Amino acid sequence: MAQATDSIRVLPGIGPKKAELFAKLGVTTLADLLRFYPRDYEDRTRLLPIASLEADSPACFIASVVTNPQTYRIPKPGGRHLEYTKVAVADHTGRLNLTFFNASYTAGRLQRGETYCFYGALTGDFLGYSMTNPLFEPADAAGTVTRCIMPIYPLTAGLTNKQVLSAVQAAMARCGVTETLPDSVRQTYSLCDAAYALREVHMPSSAEALEAALKRLTFEEFYVFSAALALLRAKRTVYTAPPMNTGRMAVFYDTLPFTLTGAQRRAVEEILSDFRSGRPMSRLVQGDVGSGKTMVAAAAAYCAANNGRQTALMAPTEILARQHFDRLTLLFSALGVRCALLTGSLSPAKKKELRQKLADGEFDLVIGTHALLTESTVFSDLGLVIADEQHRFGVAQRAALLAKGQQPHLLIMSATPIPRTLALLLYGDLDVSIIDELPPGRLPVETYLVDERYRVRLNGFIRRQAEEGHQTFIVCPSIEEGETESLKAAEQWARTLRDSVFPQLRVALLHGKMKGAEKEAVMEAFAAGEYDILVATTVIEVGVDVPNATLMVVENADRFGLSQLHQLRGRIGRGGAKSYCILVSDNQSAETRARLKALCATSDGFRIAEEDLKLRGPGDFFGSRQHGLPAFRIGNLAEDLELLKQAQQAAAETVSGGNMPESLRSAVENLLQNSEFAMN
Ligand code: ADP
Ligand code: MG
How far apart are CA 118 and CA 133, in angstroms? Predict the structure, then answer.
């Protein structure tokens, strides 16, 4: 018996050369090989009479050879030959000619008068059908290439599917399989055992058995991953926080100029319950653009202030910080919550004065950028940190938070709708609240997909918006070096628009290479109505309100992810006027157009996120791989979310139960050490 940790070299037929090829596929040990899952399967179980075979639809059929195989060699230029072998077969329903190209040896094994099982697809039309290079084996043999479900492995040059399969089979015969799932979990979720699952995933005996195997292995992968997260999370909860009194919220609700939506209310309740718990909160609030996250943050800050604790609200930019300050002071002055705006552009004397007051506890809420935490800001009693519009609140910021010597509650607000379960993965150690409802009376942004033929009308439309005193965003993709000229680069496009298309309009430019202060100045001028058109890269994605902007044009829209486009679209439709989003793309691929059309059809960010996930896969979810999602081998986040939920539940129970089986513990350790397990 071999060990799972043994090199695959112990297998017959695997020498140094083969081993090297396998290593390219990430397979060095027997255990690796057993977990080297097929990427697909070919269903060869359909068995038909010859008369029922259909063109281009592969199937098995049992037939007798009725002629002697004949091989022909036709000279080709360059001294080479075209070689093919012809043979006829028949069953009680019909006769069929088979052609084997460059396979005279294989085809020569067919014996006239004998019966075989073949697998192949008909080609041809009413002038006559034939079949090229079918697979076959004696009809009385156990099906290994016919009448089976054939695994298809990821390959590398020099390694065939057959070689991989036989290596897997050899490994299977030689080494045992350890069970990672506790019996109780297998029972609760009706999962087959590990040995059965591995056998069936590589050599399926039926479609049902394969399905059971895939379910079990997917579950296991998610389970191990979730157990790892749960362990990390458990480590973080050793801290305590003084419980807050959350019973005095009525005044806050009464002071609001509107009633919170049900979803806002739910998020607030979840936060308050964390506040009472005696543990520091780590919560992510996700809500579509315009869903009213600010008021949820305000409710939390109000409660903290009520308990004599301070809140730091961090925005990604100064301009957003100022916007929050302007809105919140209005509300909070009525509630006796003392607010400060602390930004880099204040005079040193003013900053010093504000800091002093903060340290003395004369402010309940301080609003600023991330510099709030990294600079030498001292709080008298920091109870709550809110990070607004952050996809992630990174390790550096958390470390800075810890360095403050306290364990404040942490609230992260994100406007990037991520399907809930995915969010649990992304923010493994955070709790998640979702605001999946917009305040009533919001006018949806009308969205259209057009191509270049629409350009003249589009220009007219932009001009008309300006004449009516409204503003337009024009977003261009950021262009990496070496990319084609057909893309509209922001700088160039702005120049063209300014010089030749809209000489009478005021056109501003905003792009990622500009300095922070420069960007903010442009953004502010645009918000103040000093420009009619703002040409920008996606830097405008993050939440500034320009209620007067009613049109968003996205150039080369096919270059953007759906979630990103939705995010961009959220920049408009914030005032009372009807707003429009025009996606410009000359890409005629049906798939691309369907993707963009999906955006025209819905304004529900969560549905769009799900769609994006389905279409582009989690790898592309944010347009890059920086989100720290692990690469699952067998689980597919887009398709297996329900199973992921169950696995998380099971893992949480196992971990909190405290009796983790040794095999699970080592699987978790493996995962933590080996994979791209770069959680925030
Ligand atoms: P976001 O979730 O994008 O941060 P905001 O907090 O900026 O959204 O809210 C968007 C707008 O909706 C603001 O003008 C805010 O005052 C308003 N708003 C928030 N909640 C409600 C509500 N429950 N009813 C009506 N308007 C609301
Ligand atoms: Mg916001």
Answer: 10
pLDDT for 617: 58
Q: Which two tokens stand for residue 629?
A: 């999602």
Q: Which atom of ligand 1 is nearest to the CA of 288?
A: 2
Name the token pair of 157: 């040059």
pLDDT over 80 (residue 223): yes
Closest atom of ligand 1 to 545 CA is 7
Pull the structure tokens for residue 147.
Answer: 């009448």
State pLDDT tens for residues 432-484: 898 988 888 777 899 999 999 999 999 999 999 999 999 999 999 876 655 55
pLDDT exceeds cutoff 50 at 616: yes
Q: How far is the CA of 143 from the centre of ligand 1 (A)?
A: 64
| Nearest atom in ligand 1 to 259's CA | 23
Res 33 pLDDT > 90: yes
Instruction: Report the alpha-carbon distance of residue 569 to residue 48 in Å, rounded.
Output: 54
Distance, CA 298 to ligand 2 centroid (Å)?
11
Helix (H, G, I), strand (E, B) or coil at 401: helix
Rounded to the nearest angstrom, the distance between the alpha carbon of 270 and the centre of ligand 1 is 19
pLDDT at 102: 87
Question: Is-above-0.85 flag for pTM?
Answer: no
**Distance (Å) from CA 508 to ligand 2 centroid:** 24
* Alpha helices, H only, 307-347: 318-333
DSSP letter assigned to residue 245:
P
Fold of 1-36+153-176: DNA polymerase; domain 1 (1.10.150)
Fold matches, 46-147 and 250-277+292-414: no
Mean of pLDDT values over 577-601: 91
Contacts of 538 (CB under 8 A, 6+ apart): 475, 477, 478, 512, 560, 564, 568
Q: CATH: 1.10.10.10, 3.30.365.10, 2.60.120.590, 3.40.50.300. Which one for 446-602?
A: 3.40.50.300
Q: What is the pLDDT of residues 307-358, one digit of tens each?
A: 999 999 988 778 788 889 988 998 999 999 999 999 888 888 999 999 999 9
Q: How far is it, in rounded angstroms, from Cα 106 to Cα 132?
A: 13
Tell me, in angstroms, the distance from the centre of ligand 2 to residue 437's CA: 14
Pairing of strands 409-414, 115-120: unpaired
The structural architecture, per CATH, of the domain 250-277+292-414 is: 3-Layer(aba) Sandwich (3.40)
**Do the Cβ atoms of 317 and 341 come closer than 8 Å?**
no
Which residue is closest in CA terms to ligand 1's atom 26? 439
Dist. CA 289 → ligand 1 center (Å): 9
Ligand 1 shell residues, CB under 6 Å: 258-261, 264, 287, 289-295, 415, 439
Question: Mean pLDDT of all residues in the chain?
Answer: 86
Locate the domains of the chain by residue range. Answer: 1-36+153-176, 46-147, 250-277+292-414, 446-602
Among protein residues, the one whose CA lies closest to atom 19 of ligand 1? 292
Tell me the ligand closest to 263's alpha carbon.
1
Question: Of 259, 264, 293, 295, which is best to mutate to test ligand 1, by the most ligand atoms within 8 angstroms of its C-beta?
Answer: 295
Average pLDDT over residues 20-40: 92
CATH architecture observed for domain 46-147: Beta Barrel (2.40)
- In the block, tokens 């398709």 appear at 639
Q: Whose CA is nearest to atom 17 of ligand 1?
A: 292
Q: Please state, as a whole number, how many other Cβ atoms lie within 10 Å of the Cβ of residue 371.
A: 14
